[in-house]
Design brief:
alpha+beta; two-stranded antiparallel sheet; globular
Amino acid sequence: MITNQDLIQNAANSFMLISVSLSKWSGVAQVKDGSAQAAVQAGANPEAYRGYINLLGAHHSELKRVNGAFNKLRTYIYENTLPFSQQEFDKQQRGQRLIAISRVPEVLANLQSLKDEAQTLLTDFLAEYERLVSIARSQDMGTWAIELDHPSADEVSDKFGITISPPQPVPVIDLERLGSIPVALAQEIAEANARALTGQLEKAKKEAIRNAEDQLARVIKQLEDGSRIHDSLLSDTVRSGQMLRDISEGFDHDRPIEVIADIITDEVANVASADGWRNDGWKKITAKQAAANALNSLRNEKNKQKTIAEAVAEQNDGAFVGGVLADLVE
């Protein structure tokens, strides 16, 4: 008999949690007096217009390069981990992320490399910052320079930050630690925890499926028109299949999903590099067909699957531990 606690114990043995926090500086300021003057000159209501300016003027691109390097860490963590959140897809981009234990060393090493690159770009930018400010104030700000206050290089430095959290275990309740609590209540607390974690893991699985669907559709389109066949198309495909397998093996052992994951990594990603698709028409055709088959199978499987909670309840005849906890919290 499978229980929610069996599922999350498997997840606890298979995954860890990690998060990346970033802080950056936009380099943009509101021009209040200048906005009012511009509105008057345009015959507009000054209260209806707010104007903003890039504080580094024509050299704003130097700052964008730094911010872009910082953003790469967030992009990497989103692409290589899964959400661990109670929120829906459009709200779960922050917070802890789920990562297979086997991938922790690789992901941490790559995050550190990206962090080092970002910090190097920031250091180089700060060394030039005062000169860029001087140029901007003399050549790009015009009369607005009077009301603009540029932060110092030290103040700009303080606005940037990268924090990579140490990997944490999946927070499964240990019944042995609840020894002083009555057995029935301890079991209900553990079951409530298990159901909550199962819900989070289900959302992670849905995200892995959605990512794989998007990637397969991208493969089909780009192999069809042949105009954007790059190595990233191949690496992104391999990653989407691997993450499908990770969540299945580490959570609910969903065999149909694992079969689809194998098709993605073995039959869709059937070349060593994108050159294989560009130079071998047969490889490209078979990869595209495999992608179409995998996409159809994935959509069919997604539509017919019940939630884990429904499956567990059905298997156990809908029975959970009694109502002690419900009585206490009502």
